[in-house]
Amino acid sequence: MDRLTSMEVFVRAVDLGSFAAAADALEMSAPMVGKHVRFLEERLGAQLLMRSTRRQSLTEAGRIYYERCRALLADAEAADILAVGEVAEPRGRLRVAMPVHFGRRCVAPVLLDLAKRYPQLELDLRFSDRLTDLAEEQIDLAIRTGEPQPRDGVIARRIARQRMVVCASPAYLEQQGRPGSIEDLAAQRVLVYHRSGRINPWLFPREGQPPLEFAPASRLRFDDLAAIADAAKRGLGLAWLPYWLVREAILAGELEELLAEQSGFPYDVYATWLQTSQLPRKVRLAIDALVEVIPGLVMPAQE
User: Fold this and answer.
1) For 201-206, which contacts have Cβ atoms below 8 Å and span 24 or more sequence positions?
2) Which of 35, 96, 172, 191 is the most exposed place for a label (fewest CB within 10 A)?
3) Are residues 291 and 116 in contact, defined by beta-carbon separation less than 8 angstroms?
4) What is the pTM of this model?
5) For the chain, how far is it from start to end, CA to CA, in angstroms?
6) Predicted confidence (pLDDT) per residue in 114-148, tens digit
7) DSSP string computed for 188-219
8) DSSP strand E in 107-191: where?
């Protein structure tokens, strides 16, 4: 067996926690994963993994070997990139994680155009609103909204700012009245977004000061932004949503933007990736394409 391939299989089995998960990621059978690991163990004369029906764990020798294998594989990939050169066509699999609705509406079209331009590029797009562990899930690039938490070994670059707006349906406003200020929101029925049990405040920018926060309280709570937009169009309450999501509904008269004199809060969008000595060209091309296109999608200049 090829030792470098076996090392890659071993590292993936450790990162993903099982032979089955590694087999799925590498598109090979679980028994073949086992053969690669046994090949390394026999060659080294040491056990690398302790496995039971419930779990697997690294031996002390396995832990040391795992760290060296990861470093060696990273160096090998960097060497390949340098050897191929910057003018070569990007190829291979690009794994990108992104929020469901923002990803579908804004990110995926940009990446699909990139794949159309470069036929050797493979896309593996993951749509989820949960936070992604880049190393554990072998993600090349993750797109996230909001300020990212600083993490060692993770690079974050802002690629766009999306404007948040308060909106409601004409029917709701006719029945409940139109709020004239941020303070008036407390007397209105509102639609609340929450994720993992946390309710995020509505934010309104202030010159030279931290944003003003409105803490929404409601019997109607959602973990899906599109569902909030649908509920707002049905007249169930006020919503605080990114403009790109409700733009068509506002232009069609299904929703009205409120507090127009109050600047919409600029909610940042970031691309994050694992720090590396040489960023793969396919990743850099994806980041550059997103930086070029996304701002015009989420905050059109003419609006």
Assistant:
1) 202/164, 202/166, 202/240, 202/265, 203/164, 203/265, 203/267, 204/259, 204/262, 204/263, 204/265, 205/263, 205/265, 205/266
2) 35
3) no
4) 0.66
5) 60
6) 999 999 999 999 998 888 888 888 899 999 987 77
7) S-B-EEEETTEEPPEEEEETTEEEEEE----S
8) 121-127, 141-145, 154-168
State phi, psi for 84 to the nearest 5 degrees. Answer: -70, -40
Closest CA to 269 of 130, 163, 152, 194: 163
Q: Which amino acid is at 231?
A: A
Spatial distance between the Cα atoms of 241 and 105, rounded to a whole number of angstroms: 14
Contacts of 250 (CB under 8 A, 6+ apart): 167, 256, 257
| β pairing state of 239-242 and 154-168 | antiparallel
Please compute, for residue 100, the number of CA atoms within 13 A of its CA located in the half-sphere on the CB side: 8
Element (H, E) at 93: strand 92-98
Nearest of 108, 98, 111, 143 to residue 269 by alpha carbon: 143
Q: Is beta strand 221-222 parallel, antiparallel or unpaired with respect to 192-195?
A: parallel
Locate tokens 């992104």: which residue?
Answer: 98
Tell me how far apart the alpha carbons of residues 86 and 188 are, in angstroms, rounded to a whole number: 56
DSSP state of 186: G
Tokens at 58, concatenated: 């690294």
Give every CB contact of residue 290 below 8 A, 6+ residues apart in sequence. Answer: 107, 110, 111, 143, 159, 160, 271
pLDDT value, residue 84: 59
* Separation of alpha carbons 143 and 67, rounded Å: 28
CA distance 221 to 239: 11
Q: Is 149 left (phi over 0), alpha (psi -120 to 50) or beta?
A: beta
